[in-house]
Design a protein that fits this description.
The chain is an alpha/beta fold. The protein contains 21 helices and 28 strands. A 9-stranded mixed beta sheet has the order 2-1-11-10-12-13-14-15-16, with helices on both faces. An 8-stranded mixed beta sheet has the order 7-6-5-3-4-8-9-19, sandwiched between helices. The chain has a 4-stranded antiparallel beta sheet with strand order 17-18-20-21.
């Protein structure tokens, strides 16, 4: 039985200060400072910074319940700012780092924020774009030291606030201790703004209690599953800390257990950062697991023999996964599970070969210490989860939302059902409404949407359950299966309902296809917008001497994370690309009912991106925006079909 003495509900201010006392000499934060260099800080060092920064905020006049915004990509200073706000009794209010000036303006105004933290020149520029409209803002604290501040009294550097805090403590020696100890479990802790896939973002207001309940819920789950977190482990911080999924797990849970938080340089450098840090755990989303799978697959694409070995090994691994799957579809993924045990001799010999020749090398993509990868925020294709397990990488799918402080449902390590998000977590009460929508409640639930009583009333039932907005059904042993967003269903003119996520996830393991957006509302059949895996075809074209206009290529990221996001029209018209896409669409359709199949599709010359407001910061598809941007292409698909039928 695992020790559970650490499971308790405390304020986030106490959580942090207890961690400094308990783990002071251990590494807390780790980040890259150059191509081959890193720096780190211990819990003691971070404790001093947060103490001084908190005191600086108090010196600036911050009172309990004041809203203070953070708009920055993940970095050590994000955590300094967050815990300084919490220890001052303020309300940390998140703004996604990719937000436009108008979106930032809206959140600052809606929350009534007095102070805004920004990281660099990019953040300064967005403030300057709307500075005359930020009526509640009294200070903008710039995190980076080497940025030149505008000639405006609003701006001050973080380091100057830290120095101000030290001087303030000289006159008020106990100000920090008194303030953080005055924070109550029922005080407001954070406002996390939803990504706004259906209109203006709404600010989910959480208390210290709701986040503490979420932490306790997770620790109960891990104890039950014999999955321990401790100070030797490393959490990779990749998803935006402005999202509750990353914030609650990679920051609060990690700090509670004295783990190291290693920061990705930026979202596009994840593959490089995995090798640098060799993390134990990471929070991720299906789109990134798909990308990681493609990277693993590409690792074995340099020669025909390597490609054949990889394909054969994965097939063997899948046989092993199927062997260990029971009649209900469950599989034991416990950390001490030996998947070679009990296999028929013939399969066991092949499995040993696959492990030595392929799997051991494939896992190197994630570093040498990987334990579990968590997947949430969208549907994980069951086949992708099984393929990862086939090569020895455990992905654990869960389900939750901003309003419930992250997770509501978990798959248990010793009883995983791929295609399901598991059972309700400890302290979470769930039910299915008459229309199939999931409704939940628990101490981890938000108080409501800040400054938006109408939206709050619409989100809750009369007896206090939160409407998740997802349609679910129960699978074996009451495991929850989410089949789509209530507002995301495609309703054909025949009256049949099609799950958008089910259609799109069919292509998650395709080598040739990067993204798919399904369409068909009010139409006679499903059509699709298909984005090829440009990087795959660039390599293929070069290897086979196929010429194309390389001046039209547009890339994002650097090094191993460099990826092509736009190509010329000649690129997507090559017969080999058209044929491969057609084959993968046909194979994807094999897993669908006839009315769900993609009957017509258009191949696109650019990816869906966050910058074009087609993906959320956690890479969920904003299908309404995508369909709006490509409305002509979608309409043409139905016109062509009519013309052929005439």
């Amino acid at each position: 039985m695992m020790d559970r003495s650490h499971i308790e509900r405390v304020t986030l201010a106490r959580l942090f200060n207890d961690a400094v006392v308990r783990y002071g000499d251990l590494r807390c934060q780790w980040w890259k400072t150059g191509p081959d260099s890193t720096e780190s800080l211990t819990y003691n060092q971070v404790g001093w910074i947060v103490k001084d920064l908190t005191s600086g905020l108090i010196a600036l006049g911050v009172e309990k319940s004041d809203r203070i915004c953070i708009m920055s990509f993940n970095c050590p200073r994000w955590m300094w700012a967050d815990f300084a706000i919490l220890c001052a009794g303020g309300v940390a209010t998140t703004i996604h780092p990719t937000s436009s000036s108008s979106e930032m303006n809206y959140i600052v105004d809606n929350s009534g924020a007095r102070i805004l933290f920004v990281r660099d020149q990019n953040g300064i520029d967005r403030v300057m774009d709307c500075i005359d409209n930020l009526s509640t803002l009294e200070k903008v604290i710039v995190m980076e030291d080497d940025v030149e501040l505008p000639d405006h009294t609003l701006f001050i550097k973080l380091q100057d606030v830290v120095l101000m805090g030290r001087k303030y403590q000289r006159k008020h020696p106990l100000v920090y201790e008194k303030r953080w100890r005055s924070v109550d479990l029922f005080d407001w802790s954070t406002i996390v703004y939803t990504s706004g896939t259906t209109g203006k973002p709404k600010g989910a207001l959480h208390t210290h209690l709701s986040v503490a309940a979420a932490n306790a819920r997770d620790f109960q789950f891990y104890a039950k599953n014999e999955a321990y977190f401790d100070e030797e482990h490393i959490f990779l911080s990749f998803l935006p800390l402005s999202h509750i999924y990353e914030m609650q797990m990679t920051q609060f849970v990690a700090v509670h257990k004295g783990m190291t938080i290693a920061y990705c340089q930026q979202p596009s450098t994840i593959m490089e950062d995995l090798l640098t840090y060799s993390p134990s755990y990471m929070m991720c989303v299906p789109r990134m697991w798909e990308r990681i799978w493609r990277t693993i697959s590409n690792k074995f694409s340099d020669t025909l023999d390597n490609r054949r070995n990889f394909d054969r090994a994965v097939e063997i691994g899948r046989q092993v996964v199927d062997f260990h799957t029971n009649e209900k579809g469950f599989i034991d993924m416990s950390l001490d599970k030996d998947f070679g045990e009990g296999l028929p001799e013939e399969i066991k010999e092949q499995y040993v070969w696959a492990e030595e020749v392929v799997f051991s090398k494939a896992r190197e993509v994630l570093g040498n210490n990987f334990v579990i990868g968590f997947s949430a925020a969208a549907r994980l294709n069951p086949e992708l989860g099984k393929k990862f397990l086939a090569i020895g990488i455990r992905l654990l799918e869960g389900y939750g939302c901003t309003e419930m402080s992250n997770t509501c449902c978990f798959n248990h390590l010793d009883k995983v059902l791929f295609g399901s998000v598991g059972q309700f977590g400890p302290g979470v009460d769930g039910r299915i409404a008459s229309d199939g929508e999931l409704e939940v409640r628990g101490d981890n639930m938000f108080l409501g949407y800040f400054n938006n009583p109408k939206a709050t009333a619409e989100a809750l039932t009369e007896d206090g359950f939160f409407k998740m907005g997802d349609l679910i059904e129960y699978g074996p042993d009451n495991y929850v299966i989410v089949y789509d967003r209530k507002k995301g269903l495609i309703i054909l003119d025949t009256g049949e309902n099609v799950s958008r996520s089910k259609v799109e996830s069919q292509f998650s393991t395709s080598a040739a296809i990067r993204q798919v957006c399904a369409a068909g509302d009010g139409k006679p059949y499903i059509s699709g917008l298909v984005v090829p895996n440009y990087d795959y075809f660039i390599q293929y074209y070069h290897e086979h001497g196929i010429k194309f206009d390389e001046s039209q290529l547009k890339f994002q990221g650097e090094g191993e994370d460099r990826t092509c996001i736009k190509v010329g029209e000649d690129f997507i018209q090559k017969k080999v690309l058209v044929d491969m896409i057609a084959q993968d669409v046909e194979e994807g359709n094999d897993g669908l009912e006839s009315f769900e199949e993609i009957k017509q599709y258009d191949i696109l010359s650019r990816q869906f991106t966050v910058e074009m407001d087609e993906l959320t910061p956690t890479l969920k598809s904003k299908f309404r925006n995508i369909l709006k941007h490509f409305a002509d292409e979608v309409e043409e698909l139905y016109i062509k079909k009519k013309e052929r039928s005439a």
